[in-house]
């Protein structure tokens, strides 16, 4: 539901930006042509109003997948379930109003940069609620379950991506880090690694629920008990 609401809010903005670009290129308009009085930074605003919530459109369903997987794997129900729901709502709402932290280098004034830095840091609060709730529920899990290891891998990747995001939320630091591999690493730890591990968690958890057979964690040709002996594992 939260993902659907975000899509309804941001897709029209992207459609409008694309329409304006086509009008510039095809019928002689000048929305983004600075030579004719247009503003190219306006395109960046319109794109990132879509582009940043799109990140949450991708990761919020993964949050739900991981929460269900933890709920099935843990020996007791998912900790702080109502708080997890409100945390996702908060992430969706706040994430809609922080788009310009992608644009600190375009020459925004100090007050605007201060607002977007503070709003970006605010997202860390509901996200931390989710992470600590997952960890609390994971205190007692079936260690031999493949799902639990994928959940831990997701949390590790997501935490690395999130912590680097907090660093980049500072506008002054972002000016120095802009266009470096630090930004690339931040983005891909969250999505290319975190989201993928979350999807794999969902696939394995769904397999366990449908078939009733819990996939064991295999280490070569041996069982999990050999893990302590230092055997190389393939998840």
Please give a structural write-up:
This protein is mainly α and 235 residues long. Helix content is 69%, strand content 0%. The longest helix is centred in the first third of the chain and has 34 residues, at 40-73. It is elongated.
Which characteristics define this entry?
mainly alpha, 69% helix, 235 residues
Please indicate the percent range of residues in DSSP E strands (runs of 2 or more).
under 5%
Stretches where pLDDT is under 50 for at least 5 consecutive residues are 219-235
Distance between the termini: 32 Å
Averaged pLDDT: 85
| Helix-residue proportion | 55-70%
**Strand-pairing-aware structural class:** mainly alpha
Provide the gyration radius in Å. Answer: 21 Å
* Series of H and E elements: HHHHHHHH
The number of E-state strands comes to: 0
- The multimeric state of the shown protein is single chain
Which geometry do the CA atoms define?
Answer: elongated
Please tally the helical runs, counting DSSP H or I stretches of 4 or more residues.
8
The biggest sheet amounts to: none
Q: Which helices and strands, and how do they pair?
A:
Blueprint (H helix, E strand, L loop, with lengths): L1 H25 L13 H34 L7 H15 L14 H13 L1 H14 L8 H24 L1 H7 L3 H31 L24
Task: Please give a quick description of this structure.
With 235 residues, this protein is mostly helical. Helices cover 69% and strands 0% of the residues.
